[in-house]
Design brief:
The protein is mainly α and 330 residues long. 64% of the residues lie in helices and 0% in strands. It is built from 18 helices and no strands. Helix 5 packs parallel to helix 7 and helix 13 (229-241) packs parallel to helix 15 (270-283). The longest helix is centred in the middle third of the chain and has 16 residues, at 109-124. It starts with a helix and ends with a helix.
Length: 330
């Protein structure tokens, strides 16, 4: 497994050939599902999707007629879909779906997961309409499947990426309105996705209204949700997009504790610091941006952190500092 996870395909393949055989010839072991999963993952980690699929075809019962092969493993299918998503290869993902999954257990929970992965591939490739077509085909009025909360959150996330809170809200109302005849109840994931739609659209006042309506930081109001770090991060990001560094600071101090000593506040992560840094960058506030940058633990700095400080210098028209900092960047 160690060899596989590190993409050391030569060692992994040699090990597999030396110790495994489907017919258990020459005292070798018959591989199990976990063994094949590791082999497929190894190919995916080095970007060889075709060899991963060839291995998948060789050992899994795609047709449903070969009892000598393993039943389809939805874990590894999800991994293959994620590989297509990483490459933003919509056509490859659709072909894979139609070849191996379209007619498999249409009413199963597993297929919901696969369809959700397929929708995500469209979203990551910025093909929002494509994602919605897949949803309508399988989960719409004429579809055969019933959407779950995970599927619904993916569609709301699609609208968020499209910076369209109105359509996100209308979609939410369609499934979670009090008059809707279904047994679904919104959870924190659904509400967070809808909140993010307002954040991404840079509608600060609407974002704050939504936050106050649906979230309660004390946990004392059972009708509202207790925010998590993702919600708070998005709130700081909303202030940054609106170039409101004052309130970004205020809410950062209110909901985050750098030392991790206050159990009622969150420990900031890379996204938290980058969001606050972006609030300063948008205004070209070099003094505050540099002070924050120096205070961020090195383990929480990424390329975006450096880019945001560079952005600060450029917006402030301090090209000498921008050039100096750029030359020091790795």
């Amino acid at each position: 497994e160690h060899n596989g996870k590190n993409g050391n395909l030569i060692n992994l393949n040699n090990f597999f050939k030396n110790y495994f055989d489907n017919d258990e010839k020459e005292g070798k072991f018959r591989p199990n599902v976990k063994t094949i999963d590791i082999l497929v993952e190894a190919y995916l980690e080095v970007g060889d999707i075709q060899k991963a699929i060839a291995t998948f075809e060789k050992y899994f019962n795609i047709s449903g007629k070969d009892q000598n092969k393993f039943e389809i493993d939805f874990y590894i299918i999800s991994k293959i879909f994620n590989a297509y998503a990483k490459e933003k290869d919509i056509n490859g993902a659709i072909n894979f779906f139609h070849l191996y999954l379209k007619d498999k257990d249409e009413n199963s929970k597993s297929n919901n997961v696969i369809l959700s992965d397929l929708i995500n591939i469209f979203v990551k490739a910025n093909d929002i309409e494509g994602a919605l077509k897949i949803f309508e085909q399988y989960f719409g009025p004429s579809g055969q499947l019933k959407p779950d909360l995970y599927i619904l959150s993916n569609i709301i996330n699609a609208y968020a990426k499209d910076k369209n809170p109105e359509r996100a809200q209308a979609f939410y109302n369609q499934y979670f309105n009090q008059n809707t005849q279904n047994d679904l109840k919104p959870n924190l994931i659904i509400i967070s996705a809808l909140f993010n739609a307002y954040v991404q659209a840079n509608c600060l006042e609407d974002t704050l209204k939504f936050f106050n309506k649906y979230f309660n930081s004390t946990g004392k109001d059972s009708r509202k949700f207790l925010p998590n770090k993702i919600v708070y991060n998005n709130l700081i990001h909303a202030f940054a997009l609106a170039k409101d560094s004052k309130r970004a600071e205020e809410y950062f101090d209110k909901y985050f504790d750098r030392e991790g000593k206050d159990k009622n506040r969150c420990l900031p992560d890379t996204y938290t610091f980058n969001s606050l840094l972006n609030a300063y960058a948008e205004l070209g506030n070099i003094n505050k941006a540099e002070k924050l940058f120096k205070s961020i633990p090195p383990t929480l700095c990424d390329i975006q952190t450096n880019n945001l400080l560079l952005k600060t210098y450029l917006i402030a028209n301090d090209f000498a500092k921008a050039k100096s900092f750029f030359n020091k960047m790795d």
